[in-house]
Amino acid sequence: MHEPAVIAIAGAGSIGTGWAVVFAVAGHSVRLFDPSGARLGAAPAEIAARVEDLRACGLCAESSARVLERVAASADLASAVRGAGHVQECAPEDLELKRRLFAELDALAPAGCPIASSSSFVPVSRFAAELAGRDRCLVVHPGNPPFLLRVAEVVPAPFTSPATVERTEALLRSVAVAPISVAKEVEGFVFNRLQGAMLREAYCLVRDGVASVADIDRIVRDGLGLRWAAVGPFETADLNTRGGIAAHAERMGPSYARMGAERGQHDPWTPELVAEVTVQRQAELAPEDWAERVAWRDRMVMALLRARRAVER
Questions:
Q1: Model-level pTM?
Q2: Shortest CA distance to 157 belongs to which of 121, 183, 195?
Q3: Buried b or exposed e, range 255-270, using 16+ CB within 10 angstroms
């Protein structure tokens, strides 16, 4: 067994403390850096509260005190990254700040240590391209909060080494965070491009007087989101129509195209694109297993409803 890597986290805001929970609960020693003494002072209580909530739901076996023994706060960046096996930058979404911070991290972090940004929108090539150690730099963008949404987008730049990507993805898997491989650098990556598409339409529906903010939140919370907690959008389409994803695209595609055109968007689901999605979906679910998977989805939604009712009582 290898000793758990020391994890250095640069930034003690909500994402930084969330990452600290992820790594400390998994047994890693965490060094949490922030230039603000107030932030560093508040971080232990925030981490402890999150760990206690996890314990109350049966998602963490250790006490918050035991977990906090693995977290050391530091106002000195050099001390925080000394001997680290992974650096996770969690500074605000400010391009110039990230550029300066990555230059410092590249100078201070041990040779070969991956330096990952929690950037939500900005690709690493925009702030690390000029660094001597740019081959070890990449984005690892988590859902918020990271200790609950157990996925993280791994977004290398063209200059990021394959070894850095492999090492980072292995670390994420070891702490029960699923790495999502993003093949191209695009602003917002996958998480926020999907989220942004829904938010743009939600704002338009309010603007146009179609529905209220509260009702839009409800239709996502109690409708779309409840289903998506069990299956994603492609699997939803696959399971909602007999004949699967191809049949769904044939029946619903023209309507979605017209709705997109209302917003000035022209991204048709071409036969070639539908065929590619169909191939990928059938690699996940054979057509003969469709009915069984539909029943599984329904049971998952029932379990979610039961859990929600238990909490609401």
A1: 0.94
A2: 183
A3: eeeeeeeeeeeeeebe
